[in-house]
Amino acid sequence: MRLRLNFSSFVNCAAALVLLASVAACAKSPAEDGKPAQVMYQEVYDPLEPMNRYFFNVNYALDALFLKPVAEIYRGVLPNPVRNSVRNFLTNLSQPIYFINNVLQGELNRAGDNMGAFFINTLWGIGGLFDVAQLNTGEEDMGQTFAVWGAPEGPYLVIPLVGPNTTRAATGGVVDYFIDPVNIAADNNDLDYVGVTRFAVSGIDARSRSIEALDEIEKNSIDFYATIRSLYRQNRNNLILNGKGNPAQLPDMSFDEDDAPTAKKS
Amino acid sequence: MLKHCKLPILLIIVAVTAIAVIQAPVIAAESKEAGAKALIESLGSQAVKILSDKSLSEEQKEQKFDQFLDADFDMPRIARFVLGRSWRGATKAQKTEFRAVFRNYMVSSYAQKIGTYSGENIKIIDSKSINDKESLVYTLIERPQGPPIKLDWRVRTNDGKQKIVDVIIEGVSMALTQRSEFASVVNNRGGVDGLISELKEKAKMASSN
After folding, report:
1. Which three-class secondary structure state does DSSP give residue B157?
2. Can you list the domains of chain B with their CATH numbers?
3. Is there a contact between A251 and B154 if contact means CB atoms under 8 Å apart?
4. Does the structure's ipTM exceed the value 0.85?
């Protein structure tokens, strides 16, 4: 049983890596106007936009029909402390995979926090229901690890039921699923429903915390798809950099190259 | 004796002048960041004061915020940035109209939020230089419920005055988001004129609510 599982997860990892490599090979940032790739990298790379827009609309409809109402009921019925415990429990379940990713990224201090939080909260926080450790660990996934290793972002992707992604993040998500110790443990014990339940509850939990924010964004945007795409990519970038972006890499707002000729004329 | 005295004095004057000249940019750079910090500090405390003032109506609050937008934000520069590559191809009339429409759109999008204020407070953390004209002011929005939100203000010196050119929420730049969105509208829905009419529509819808 264990051998079969390990083998199948190995095959899946390998398949994901091959996919990643092929994506990396064809996913060069388009260089326009002769500007360096560094600047262009900030720009949107969305060659599959028509398909993405289609799935975006599908997801939007599914959200309006199912996820949002369920999230509203969830928030309305359960008191805040209970919902916080659900959140803590889910975070605690993810600490092992965060730990693995932090190690792979060379972030050993953060990995130590993951390990500390996991053991303290599992033991003293009743299986992770309470965040006793208060270590404020961030989310780390294989998509971020690939980014730290230098893999390009790849085309933007909207995945049915999952939502906004980049090819890199999606590939990372597949690898995460198969190397996550919690999933492996569940699989070894024939607890098939664990993965699905975790996915569903995480979705409801996350959605219940973003009801107002998403409504607000939708109300103020004239192209909701493009806004979400930009927000998603910038947020991913922030996660990859662990919130420590280099201010010098902000987009240029000087317009000097344009202003210079006009200034000379006048 | 007098002759001997003159030289050191002259030297001292030269040295002092030289030091002053060399140090000037350093002092200026320091005061640039400090100035940016002071700008956000005063804006933040004024905003919180207005928002929590129960004697003011929502319209009065909105008017005060309009003043901030014109006085402390470099709106022409922001408008130009968010139009991105389309700026160069746009006619003078389109540029003028876009600036006006974009301002109204910004006003309408924050005007609805004024009523939802629930005791948030701004805490200035630090400021850093980005380049010779710009600094970034790091702040935290402390909320009565939930974790604080990281808010960074990009401030730029223009014609001797510091003004805000971008607001970065948890690593997400407002200007960049809008530029990306507007580029998509320009491409998919009738160019710059299409964008202008969409923005007008949005501002009208928000103000009628």
Report:
1. strand
2. 9-208 (3.10.450.710)
3. no
4. no
